[in-house]
Design the sequence.
């Protein structure tokens, strides 16, 4: 009989790999499309897929989330999926896949620090050590890749990547807050709950991005800017692989394995991006980047896999 933890661990690694592939594919399109437009398409494309997933799992049952949970999930969707992912795509365009996703690896660290303040989760000694390792690895890679003063585009990309990491971390904490009142469910119930929560987050993000896009179009019209048609056909595959498959794999992982293992293994995307970025995007593969990325990912794993308390 297959070990459930092994199934969950493989699903979590599959999620990280899916995100890495999606990142490479999105990066190629960001040379031609705006980050906001790409994020809107990605989010709108995945919304009906997750609604359909919930509907199949619910088998005609009632919607499992109340008003308070939906409030936090809406806030999480706007903060993380809308604003956070738009910042992520901006960074991806400016500084490339490897450095963007490495900075994104600080998200779990930030979420841990935020949760220590609100809602007041205990911070363990191992988590503190993991935070230190993560910061050391990220600082090492970014600092090593600098050649004299930072170029404005690189500095902007690093700032947007950091902003995305903070916003997504806040989104994680809000999602935890929304779902913390639910008792343990059977496998199908947990998958249904995760699909419903993801659907609410995606719907909120779509509404926010539509309003933002409309405001930006009006501003461009006043300036006399030329509108471009979005090449949506070329965004279907990265949206499917990088968003739907990745999030679905995490949902499966959380059902079969402890959340710490899932979080640690699904944070290995920067490791997969080292060879993928080199092969498909022509990004340099330096020893300093490899060492720094391994150190940072090890720090993330330590945050989740230890519960040594003060």
Sequence:
């Amino acid at each position: 009989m297959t070990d459930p933890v092994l199934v969950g661990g493989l699903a979590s690694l599959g999620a990280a790999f899916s995100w890495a592939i999606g990142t490479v594919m999105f990066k190629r399109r960001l040379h031609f499309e705006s980050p906001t437009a790409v994020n809107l398409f990605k989010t709108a494309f995945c919304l009906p897929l997750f609604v359909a997933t919930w509907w199949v799992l619910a088998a005609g049952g009632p919607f499992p989330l109340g008003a308070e949970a939906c409030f936090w999930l809406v806030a999480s969707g706007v903060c993380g999926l809308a604003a956070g992912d738009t910042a992520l795509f901006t960074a991806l365009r400016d500084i490339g896949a490897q450095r963007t996703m490495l900075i994104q690896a600080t998200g779990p660290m930030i979420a841990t620090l935020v949760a220590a303040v609100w809602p007041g989760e205990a911070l363990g000694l191992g988590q503190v050590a993991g935070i230190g390792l993560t910061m050391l690895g990220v600082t090492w890679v970014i600092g090593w890749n600098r050649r004299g003063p930072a170029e404005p585009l690189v500095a902007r990309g690093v700032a947007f990547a950091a902003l995305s990491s903070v916003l997504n971390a806040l989104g994680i904490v809000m999602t935890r807050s929304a779902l913390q009142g639910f008792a343990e469910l059977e496998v199908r119930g947990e998958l249904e709950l995760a699909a419903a929560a993801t659907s609410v987050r995606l719907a909120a993000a779509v509404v926010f991005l539509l309003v933002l896009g409309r405001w930006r179009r009006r501003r461009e019209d006043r300036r006399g800017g030329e509108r471009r048609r979005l090449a949506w056909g070329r965004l279907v595959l990265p949206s499917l692989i990088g968003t739907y498959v990745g999030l679905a794999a995490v949902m499966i992982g959380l059902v079969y394995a402890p959340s710490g293992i899932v979080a640690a293994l699904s944070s290995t995307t920067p490791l997969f991006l080292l060879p993928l970025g080199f092969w498909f995007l022509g990004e340099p593969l330096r020893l300093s980047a490899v060492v720094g990325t391994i150190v940072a990912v090890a720090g993330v794993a330590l945050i989740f896999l230890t519960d040594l308390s003060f």
